[in-house]
Amino acid sequence: MPQYWAVGDEKDQRFWVGEDPSVEFLAAIIEHVGHPIFVKNPRSEWVLLNRAFCEMAGHPREAMLGKTDHDFFPEAEADFFRRKDLEMFEQGSTVVVEEEPLTDGAGHKHVLSTTKVPYRDASGEVTHLVGIISDITRIKEAEDALRDANQELERRVAERSTALAAAHGELLRKERLAVLGQLAGGMAHQLRNPLGAIQNAIALVLHETLGKKQLDAVRVIQEEVARADHIITALLDYARIAPPARRRVPVVDLLAEVIDLEGLPDSITVEVQLDPELEVDVDVTQVQMALGNLVRNAREAMPEGGRIEWHGHDTGKAVELSVQDTGPGVPESRRDLLFEPLITSKAEGSGLGLCTARNLIENQGGRLDFCATGGGARFVMQLPR
């Protein structure tokens, strides 16, 4: 009759050597079980290994029998296996390791779930450790992949939610501006009539002989009427933006005309750095009006002089044009309100310049944004090529 797994010292041989056919039958079953199975003695030496264990470990059975984990696996892994073996022998009860790493002979990483069960002899003494392994590597990989997929999905949902919130906010903003534009346009037309009457009355008064005080008062009225007319003009500009009449034009020509029209003082220098061949397809009048608003903002920010810089380049999808001044810049607390209508920090401002400029640029299919810098104010616009 055959003998089975004659390994180890005399005590091991008495345990494993026999001539009972039932032992051979049991050995064949253990050998063909799909889960890795091993048996260790109290010195953590293997005395039995089935085929599944050897295939997982990547080492031949004859090389591993009588050896320990420290002979085949990284030190940290072997130390962990040994601690769990000792825990089982000391407690004399089953030890379940839910998750532990193992590096096989080819260097591949496995994740195992191991149950270590005590084997007792006829006297009840724990003589061996029986280990049953489930290789959960693929399960862990699937869990990791699922977790990554969930995180990616959450990221996309968050991005989509942010985009939808931004789109909703933009829609509300445009609806609010449209209503405000209609109201502003109606009010502007209504206000022009009494202002015209005031101007006519002033003209008649000026034909009379007036003293100095009366003339000073009339001049104040004229100045305030002019200021009111300027505000009304701004309201109308904001309210009556028509569809663009596009034509192709060099950017340098646009800027040159705007700079000439604004009549900047000698204390302000202008630097233009862009390709003279750079062209855009826009409504020239509307874009010049928007650029003029930006130039006026820069001029008003530098009452004692400074520099205005224009830069432009072709991004491939649009022409990016930026303007920066050397003024005090925009306080962080006001940046979110820059393009809101009727909000201004200027004593005589209408609060319509920047929002009108943005509307005019957006009317071309472009965009206008404020960019925070270390000093001064910088506005960047995208215009159709």
Secondary structure layout:
Layout: H1 10-16, H2 21-32, E1 37-40, E2 46-49, H3 51-57, H4 61-64, H5 75-91, E3 95-103, E4 109-120, E5 126-135, H6 137-205, H7 212-239, E6 247-250, H8 251-262, E7 268-273, E8 279-282, H9 284-301, E9 306-314, E10 318-325, H10 353-362, E11 367-371, E12 378-384
Parallel strand pairs: 7-9
Antiparallel strand pairs: 1-2, 1-5, 3-4, 4-5, 6-8, 9-10, 10-12, 11-12
Helix pairs in contact: 6-7, 8-9, 9-10
Write up what this structure looks like.
The protein has 385 residues and is α+β, with helices and mostly antiparallel strands. It folds into 3 domains: 10-135, 2-Layer Sandwich (Beta-Lactamase); 170-239, Orthogonal Bundle (Helix Hairpins), CATH 1.10.287; 247-384, Histidine kinase-like ATPase, C-terminal domain (Heat Shock Protein 90, 2-Layer Sandwich). It contains 10 helices and 12 strands. The chain has helices spanning 10-16, 21-32, 51-57, 61-64, 75-91, 137-205, 212-239, 251-262, 284-301, 353-362; strands spanning 37-40, 46-49, 95-103, 109-120, 126-135, 247-250, 268-273, 279-282, 306-314, 318-325, 367-371, 378-384. The chain has a 5-stranded antiparallel sheet with strand order 2-1-5-4-3, with helices on both faces. Helix 6 (137-205) runs antiparallel to helix 7 (212-239), helix 8 (251-262) packs across helix 9 (284-301) and helix 9 runs antiparallel to helix 10. The radius of gyration is 43 Å and the shape is rod-shaped.
